[in-house]
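Protocol step 4 of 6: structure prediction from sequence.
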Amino acid sequence: MTANRKTIHCVLLAGGSGTRLWPASRKLHPKQFTSLATGSALTMLQQTASRLSGIEISNYLTLCSEEHRFLVAEQLREIDKTGPIILEPEGRGTAPAIALAALASRSDGDDPILIVLPCDHQIADHERFVQAMQKAIDLAEAGYLTTFGVLPTEPATGYGYIQAGETLSGGGFTVARFVEKPDFATATQLLEREDYFWNSGMFVFRASTVLEALGTFAPDVLNACEAAMQRAQQDLTFIRAAIEQFLSSPNISIDHAVMEKTPRAALVPLDAGWFDLGSWGTIWKTSSKDVNDNSTQGKTALYDSQRCLVMSSGRLIGIVGVEDLVVVETKDAVLVCDRHRTEDVKALTDVLRESGASESDTHREVFRPWGKYDAIDQGSNYQVKKLTVKPGAGLSLQRHRHRAEHWVVVSGTAKVRKGEQEFLLEENQSTYIAVGEVHRLENPGEEDLELIEVQSGSYLGEDDIVRLEDHYSRS
């Protein structure tokens, strides 16, 4: 089929766990699904999907994990950027992810241009970003595999670098070489050069071009992904890549698999206030600050303190007489860290995980396709949760082997099925679910349903749910 200039797909890379931004970012609710300190009500995923306004996008394809699929679907629905969501059985690097997206984009016989965007970047100047994107689209049309080189502002050691080669028509360059993350001395030398740029990790190329390059330089990646997509299963808007076939692919980035090897790599300079929001140190750099270079969010009080990042999700945080400190509070954890060592937060999460601390992976507040729950209190044989059920949504038809539940409606209307009975509960009304009793909770109203759930029993784990029927195809 003849390529169409106007056929452009946006590929959103929404995998990853964001462990360096613990405790705000965790495995089950990582940074791309939060707004953190970006100064926006939109999450990072939503900001990224909205970033291409001014460019005609025909479709959005999102790569994420099975456990995040409903978060992705809901957040994209909220901003009307829906499209196929491809579920990776396991994170295997950007090369397999991009291969899956490219194969999916060609399923209708078209050959679109793909704009590949990680969902943890900040762009300050939208107009310059779109101008650079248009240049990259032109180069992609000419058969180049295009990436963006960010004009460096400091000798950063957390980014890879790209050296620009010969000038191309339209404002781009060939790629002379890629440089792995350097030490400080090397980064200082590269900063003095005008032909070195930070590697942004964003790409633009035609689907057929990147698939051909994968076939040439990384055939094991392409073969595995082709097999995984041939055996993929469609579930609602989700495309589940076949597990065994996908896991036969090497774990490799698109840079190592293709960009460092192909003679068709091109670079477009980008000077648009780009940052990879990968650590609390970067959050501090990109946030607004007071006269003492402190950046704060939430309920905070600072005295005689300089160059600190202090973020509260609820409780008041007070600091006195400190410098270069990061303090981040969530409902169930507090991080205190030297601002110059924020890259080591990942090592802390490894320590937490090895110790068996649930806070390494999960928040107290947990999101579900029907809404969310907040685990307010827990003892040896009881647990108290606040449930929020979205309008028109409902929990699965289920029963529990080990626990009973008592529901008290706080606001809204609850439709309850209990055994063979079905009835409505209004504000301040309650019901009791015995151990083993089949039940379902739904929200038939137009406003959020909020209720308090008191669980009691010998075992209160989330795996004590036997689903008999589910709107969301969960087992």
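Step 5 (inspection) to follow. The longest strand covers residues 196-206.
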